[in-house]
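As a next step, we paired sequence with structure tokens, yielding the entry below.
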Amino acid sequence: MDERFLSKPNVIKASRDFVCVRMMTYESASEAQLLKTLWRPDAPLENTVFAILDPDGRSIVRGGRSPQMVFRDADDMTTRMNEIARYYGSNGAAVPKDLPAVDTVRLAVDVAACDKRPLVIVVGQNDQERKQLAARLAPTAWSEQLVGKLVYTTGSGTDLSIIKNANRSSGYIFVAPGLFGTDGTALMHLSASASSNDLAAASKQTIGMYHPQVLSHHDHVRSGRQNGVQWQSAIPVSDPHDPRSAGASQNVGPHGFGHPSGPPSSAGRPGGGFGGGSYGAQYGSPSTRRQTYIQEYR
């Protein structure tokens, strides 16, 4: 999903006319309930769900596992997104003001590892301090040079047990996530008095310092198993392609493991893929699916 569609420059550019929300499937009961309303009626919620909604929250592109189920490729997706934006009069002029933060340090480390992005942790001793520090970082996060290149979260000193060499005082920690998303290593620290220029410079330096190890999905899963890596999701996994699901097939193949939001990841986490040919037969040809899914906004 990310490599073929969401990380492509033309899709990123088109997304500026949309409010983009990344939900964590089995990491939030309330988010899972919302995702079920976008998924197939009476079907168990699967690991990944992709949808495009109108300004009133109604489906334009109905929920599927991936953009691949609707669009031929990234160019096709970009064309359709631009059509939708023009139809609803979106001009992308508004710049978000809030830091795009993952809910917890634990989950943010995992997301960063799966996305192969460095992580910035905003550390404050109370909610008010964390909000103030996050607000200072937000313009840097949304800047043209850095948007989408780091993952962000907030926490207190007590949330940093999985971060090696972390300074627990208030400020900003720039982190390289570990291979399996269960730990990380602090690369840089900035104090709570850091300026916008300091934050931008540290962000760029961290990106240059971070060189993630790249493994094939098979080797990643095998290494995770060998190292005893397990991921306990917040709510039970219901994806029938995942071996931990009550309705799972025993013949799940290499797609039986993955990150809550989809990219390949270590063994034991919710399933990140689906059968190579099953969705085609179930949903019809790509042309038929496109006509079915995008007709509502015309």
Q: What stands out?
A: Confidence is low (pLDDT under 50) at residues 247-290, 292-298. The beta strands are 50-53, 59-64, 101-102, 119-123, 151-155, 163-164, 171-177, 184-191. Residues 174 and 188 are 5 Å apart (CA to CA). DSSP finds ten helices and eight strands in the chain.
